[in-house]
Design brief:
With 268 residues, the chain is an alpha/beta fold. The protein contains 8 helices and 9 strands.
Amino acid sequence: MTAIALTIAGSDSSGGAGIQADLKTFAALCVYGASVITALTAQNTQGVRGIHDVPADFIRAQIDAVFSDLDVRAVKIGMLSQVASIEAVAQGLAAHGAANIVLDPVMVATSGDRLLAPEAVEALRKNLVPRSLVVTPNLPEAAVLVGASVARNEREMEVQAREILALGARNVLIKGGHGNGEESVDLLIGEGDVVRLSAKRIATTSLHGTGCTLSSAIAAGLARGLDLKSSAEEAKEYVTAAIATARNLHIGHGHGPLHHFHAAWRES
């Protein structure tokens, strides 16, 4: 049986994040990728120039079309900029009994441009966090979800992750990429022990689409039948290698993309 994962996210016209990053990640990790586009963005490595939201009823139509035909084993949710979009996704996933939902609460692009309307944060908390197997916020996103200052250390990261669990999520992977120090540490927190995922911090500006890539890599593992811990560990290793090899790409003049196909491409 072919493993299938679905990404529900916005399109990045420069190809480094969003739907494009998700589909590249699925392919690199041997999973067939389907997609539901929630917004079109006019962006490049230097910033977001415009956002055109897909109407909520058409988002729902895409979800219905995919689930009525494909055996979707995992779902990654990314950019949802409006309340109506969030509600359409929540209703569509509930109608089809979607499982293995990975929620990446995208709020701000790597360039600093805001991607989520302020009034949509509460809709995200109410409608999608409780449906998720795992929520994958970075430090600023976790702070917004719980209404606190950005976590400064692993103890504060754990506290905020547990507050997100209290919103109804089954697990939280809080990402430390925005932190400091020699290590980039993520914490996976759920019903059991805290799982610490660590990698050496890489000095680079090629980080466009990192959060999209990590969450879709987790979804890819779940679609292939791995448990959440194994999926998160594999995703951490994949993203770390994609960041480390991004120097082999020369894309744009701003925050460059990861090298999603680092294991397949030959250096020229």
